[in-house]
Amino acid sequence: QLRLVESGGGLVQPGGSLRLSCAASGFTLEQYTVGWFRQAPGTEREGVSCISKSDGNTYYADSVKGRFAISRDNANNTVYLQMNSLKPEDTAVYYCAVDGWTSGRSMCVHLVVSSWGQGTRVTVSS
CA dist 12 to 7, 51, 83, 86, 87, Å? Predict the structure, then answer.
């Protein structure tokens, strides 16, 4: 059974850092395009960062470029999202998602997703 589990969320002060983890079970994450999405109260879910399965190309939303970094840990079947210089507007529930066919850019921009994780909450506040 395909399963994605996010972890690493929490409360952090502005300017701080967090690293989110997306651990997969029941399938090999390396064979999928993987993305991180977020949804704040009253807003639509948006693509934050995605990494393609075929060539490892990465996509970042303009709002997080230079601050966030997505990476794979194939040995541990996990994808990470390193978040630095966090801002209050980064506050949201963050979701991990996969798709077996799409590119990273398409996943993030058009939310082409086959499976979602349950989400982890990130709160940036002083």
Answer: 15, 25, 11, 8, 9
Q: Label residues 13-23 b or e (16+ Cβ within 10 Å = b).
A: eeeeebebbbb
Residue written as tokens 């997306």?
A: 22
**What distance in Å separates the CA atoms of residue 7 and residue 54, rounded to the nearest whole number?**
25
Give the pLDDT confidence of 21-52 residue by residue, as tens digits. Answer: 999 999 999 999 999 999 999 999 999 999 99
Sequence-distant (≥ 6) Cβ neighbours of residue 44 within 8 angstroms: none
Q: Note the Cα 9 to chain centre separation in Å.
A: 11
Question: In sequence order, which ranges of 1-126 are alpha helices (DSSP H)?
Answer: 104-110
Strand partners of residue 50? 35, 59
Task: Round to whole Å and give the CA distance between 62 and 49.
Answer: 10
